[in-house]
Design goal:
By secondary structure, the chain is α+β, with helices and mostly antiparallel strands. The chain has 14 helices and 13 strands. The strands form three sheets. The protein has an eight-stranded mixed β-sheet, sandwiched between helices. The radius of gyration is 19 Å and the shape is globular. InterPro entries: Amidase, Amidase_CS, Amidase_dom, AS_sf.
C-alpha cells in the first residue's frame, strides 16, 4: 500500500499531487483503531523529521511533532508527508510562497481553494483516503467544495475569539465520523435554507443555487422540516471578524506575502480597545443567530461560484483580494466565529454546506450522510 502511494505521488508534480513533502520511509505501525491509515499532515503543523514551511519557503523549520499529530499516531495512523497550504493558512486559495501553486484536479488550471488545498487535492486524486486539514475561516470546507470531496469542521471552543479547528478532508461522511469517533444519530430536523450571502457584497451563481435547491427538496422528501430563512445579522459582525483576524496577525514576523503583510499592517494599526470590542462582538454572534433562526441546521451553498483560475485572487491588491475571497466564500466563516460545526458535501453537481445551529454533531453528520449517501 505504501509503495503504491509513493509510486502514484512520484508520477505527479507537486502542483498536481498537493504534497510539499513525502517521506521515503514508512513509519512503524502502532496498533490502534486507524489500523495503519496513510495520513498526510497539513503544512501548518509540525511533524518530527519533516520540514514545516507554514506555506512559505522563507519560514521553513524542522520542529517536534504537534500533540495533535502524536494523538493520530497513537491511534494507528502512519504519517506519510505534508500537504500544501497558503502562507500561515491566511487565504482561501493555495499558492504557497516559493513553492508551486496547487492545481485543481476537477477544474484544471483553477484554484483548489484553501488554505487546506493540498489536502483536498490529495484526497480528490485518490492518493490518500483521508488527509488532515484545519479550518479558521472555511479552510477545510472551501477546498473540499472546490475539489468535490467532503470537508468537516468540528465544533471548537471559540473563547477569546479562537477561530481554528483541526479536522480532515475525506471522500465519505462515514470516514469523517470514524476520524472524529462520532456515531450517527438520525432524527427529523428543522432545516433553514439560506440562498443569500451572509458576508460580502457578491451574488451567487445559478449552479450553486440549484445544488442548494436540490438538497432542500431532497431533505424535505426525507421527512425533514425545511424552511426559508433570511440573513440573521448585518455586515458589522463580519467587519468585527476582519478586525479580530488582522489583530491576530499583528505579531507575525519576517518577510511576508502581500496579503499577509497587509493583514499584519492592519493589525498593527489597531488599538487594544478596538481589538477587544471586535472579539466581544464576535463572541455575541451565536446568541444573535439563535434568536433569529428557530432551526437545527442551516443549509447553504458552500461557495458562491466556481473556483477561479490560479492567480485570480493574488493578482489583486490585498484589500480587493480579501474582499473577493469573501464574495467566493460568504457562509463558512459564521461557524468559525461561533465555534459551531459545519460540513461541506458534494451534491447536485456542486457542493452544499450544512451548519449546526442547534443540532448535535452526530445529528449533523447523520443528515449529511442522508444526502451524500443517497
Amino acid at each position: 500500500m505504501f509503495e503504491e502511494f509513493l509510486s502514484r505521488v512520484s508520477a505527479l508534480t507537486p502542483a498536481e499531487s498537493g504534497f510539499v513533502h513525502v517521506t521515503d520511509t514508512l513509519p512503524p505501525l502502532i496498533d490502534g483503531p486507524l489500523n495503519g491509515l496513510l495520513l498526510p499532515i497539513k503544512d501548518l503543523m509540525p511533524v518530527s523529521g519533516m520540514p514545516t514551511a507554514y506555506g512559505s519557503i522563507t519560514r521553513q523549520v524542522v520542529e517536534p511533532s504537534d500533540p495533535f499529530v502524536l494523538s493520530l499516531v497513537a491511534r494507528g495512523a502512519r504519517i506519510v508527508g505534508k500537504t500544501a497550504t497558503s502562507e500561515l493558512g491566511m487565504t482561501a486559495y493555495t499558492e504557497p510562497v516559493g513553492m508551486p501553486a496547487v492545481d485543481n484536479p476537477v477544474w484544471p488550471g483553477h484554484t483548489p481553494g484553501g488554505s487546506s488545498g493540498g489536502a483536498a487535492v490529495a484526497v480528490a486524486r485518490d492518493l490518500v483516503r483521508i488527509a488532515h486539514a484545519s479550518d479558521g475561516g472555511g479552510s477545510i470546507r472551501v477546498p473540499a467544495a472546490a475539489c468535490g470531496v467532503v470537508g468537516f469542521k468540528p465544533p471548537h471552543n471559540n473563547a477569546g475569539g479562537k477561530l481554528t479547528a483541526q479536522g480532515f478532508i475525506t471522500k465519505t461522511v462515514a470516514d469523517q465520523a470514524m476520524m472524529h469517533a462520532v456515531p450517527l444519530q438520525a432524527r427529523p430536523l428543522r432545516v433553514g435554507v439560506l440562498f443569500e450571502p451572509l458576508h460580502g457584497d457578491g451574488t451567487v451563481a445559478p449552479e450553486w443555487l440549484n445544488a442548494c435547491v436540490e438538497a432542500a427538496n431532497a431533505l424535505s422528501d426525507l421527512g425533514h422540516d425545511v424552511v426559508d430563512v433570511s440573513p440573521a445579522y448585518d455586515q458589522t459582525y463580519f467587519q468585527a471578524f476582519e478586525t479580530m483576524l488582522s489583530g491576530m496577525c499583528r505579531k507575525i514576523e519576517g518577510e511576508a506575502s502581500p496579503i499577509v503583510e497587509w493583514l499584519r499592517s492592519e493589525g498593527q494599526a489597531l488599538t487594544a480597545g478596538e481589538q477587544g470590542m471586535a472579539v466581544e462582538k464576535c463572541m455575541s454572534l451565536g446568541d444573535v443567530v439563535r434568536r433569529a433562526w428557530d432551526i437545527d441546521i442551516l443549509l447553504t451553498p458552500t461557495l458562491a461560484f466556481d473556483p477561479p483560475k490560479i492567480g485570480h485572487f493574488s493578482a489583486l491588491p490585498p484589500r480587493e483580494d480579501f474582499d473577493e475571497q469573501t464574495r467566493w466564500t460568504p457562509w463558512c466563516t459564521l461557524f468559525n466565529i461561533t465555534g459551531w460545526a459545519g460540513i461541506s458535501i458534494p451534491f447536485g453537481g456542486r457542493s452544499i454546506h450544512l451548519g449546526a445551529i442547534r443540532a448535535s454533531v452526530p445529528e449533523l453528520l447523520a443528515l449529511a450522510e442522508e444526502l451524500h449517501g443517497s
